[in-house]
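>> received
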Amino acid sequence: VSAPLYQLAWTAVATTTTSVEAGDWLLVQADSCESSWLQENLASAGARVHCLTLADANVADWAVQVNAALQEKNWRGLILQIDALSSLDATTYSCTLKNIERCRLLLELWEVHCAGETSRAQRGLWLVTPAMHAESALALAPLQGFVKGASLEKRLAWGGYLELKDNTAAS
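>> returned
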C-alpha cells in the first residue's frame, strides 16, 4: 500500500480587526421632517450625521441646498432616505418619479463634489427605503430600475440600495 499523494489539514489563522471611523454622513430626507431612526442608528454606531430635509423643494432648490451642504465638510458619504409608499395611484407614481430625479441629482452632485478624489467618491451615495409591500412594490419598480442602472454605470460613486424591513428596527 502506497502513501497518500495529498493530505488536507486545517490550520487556525489569526484574524485581525481593523477599526474604520464611521465619519461624517449627510443624510438627505426626501419626505419627512421627523427625527430619523436611520440618523439615530448611525449616530449610535459612531457616525456624525447631518440631516437635511428637502420635503417640498423643487429640483433646482434641491441642487442649491445639497451643493451648499456638500461644501460644508469632507463627507464620508451621502444617504437619500425616502418614506414608504402606501398605495399605487397617480400621486404615488409621481412621488416615485420625483425620487428618481432626486437620486439622479444627488449622484451627479456627489460625483462633481468628489471630482478627482477617487478614494472619497467610492461608494458614496446610498438610497434607503422602508420595506416594500404588495401595494407599493409596483410603484417603486421604476426606482429600482434606476438603482440597477446607477450601480452599473456609476460604480465608484454608487454605494448601494437598502430596503429595511422595519423603520424602528434598523441596525
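>> DSSP finds five helices and five strands in the chain.
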